[in-house]
Amino acid sequence: MSSSPKVDGSALSGVSETALMTLQVRATEARRPDALIDDPMAITLADSIDFDYAKFGSSRRQDMAVRSMAFDKETRRYLGDHPRATVVALAEGLQTSFYRLDAAGVGHEFRWLTVDLPPMVELRQKLLPPSDRIRMLAQSALDFSWMDQVDASDGVFITAEGLLMYLQPDEALGLIGECARRFPGGRMMFDLPPAWFARLISRGLLRPSLSYRVPPMPFSMTPSQVANLVNEIPGIRAVHDVPLPPGRGAALNAALWTMQRLPLFDPVRPVFTLLEFG
């Protein structure tokens, strides 16, 4: 792929454009000699797209790699018990999770369904290696017809990595509720920013660079609000607060450990949630 002409990334806009930022951050991390994440496909993909990544500011951040590692860990755990399950990646963007998991010793029987908007699916089809275990649907995650394309007989694990915060609250909760209704026995993982962070982003007061403004984030929840979903949405059997995997640096890891475990910090920390449907 590296010898082919680069593909123009400027067709991506709005929320879809954030996928280029997260890809660049992850690829930058993967290039380090002390990389947190083994993600050669992210490096290849970032190098295959013609785009001015400098508009996003510095890519020397750990957050996107740590986020992907958290999703990988829970997906891997589910596939350990359900090796032929289908993983549904909602608004997958330019994630390279399938390739990391396929190399991670969980076997090669699990199937993958990407659900994303047409420009993103077109880019993925051009640049990522095909597999007879990967299917792609060019549609919004809020068009629930994708659920009809999921064979849940061997299990289903749904990821919404970096998605729900960009939806309206009723859309996000509606999506969770429909997944719970349609996929008993399955699981769903999502992440959300704390409300203060979402407010600053939405007002344009927090930017990765002067030349780039992250799209508004209308949806956020506190850990206690997320925990209460088990009482509010039929079909949710359990809610798990997922701890973040270690990053690089003792001070960072001490801070993450403390914030995850002291309720005092619940209003100010991000949420990583695993739902069990039953």
From TrEMBL:
InterPro entries listed in its UniProt record: Ppm1/Ppm2/Tcmp (IPR007213), SAM-dependent_MTases_sf (IPR029063), TcmP-like (IPR016874)
Keyword Transit peptide attributed: no
GO MF entry, a single one: methyltransferase activity
SUPFAM superfamilies documented for this protein: S-adenosyl-L-methionine-dependent methyltransferases
Record has Methyltransferase as a keyword: yes
Alphabetized UniProt keyword annotations: Methyltransferase, Transferase
GO terms, biological process: methylation
The protein's name in its UniProt record: O-Methyltransferase involved in polyketide biosynthesis
Origin species: Mycolicibacterium rutilum (Mycobacterium rutilum)
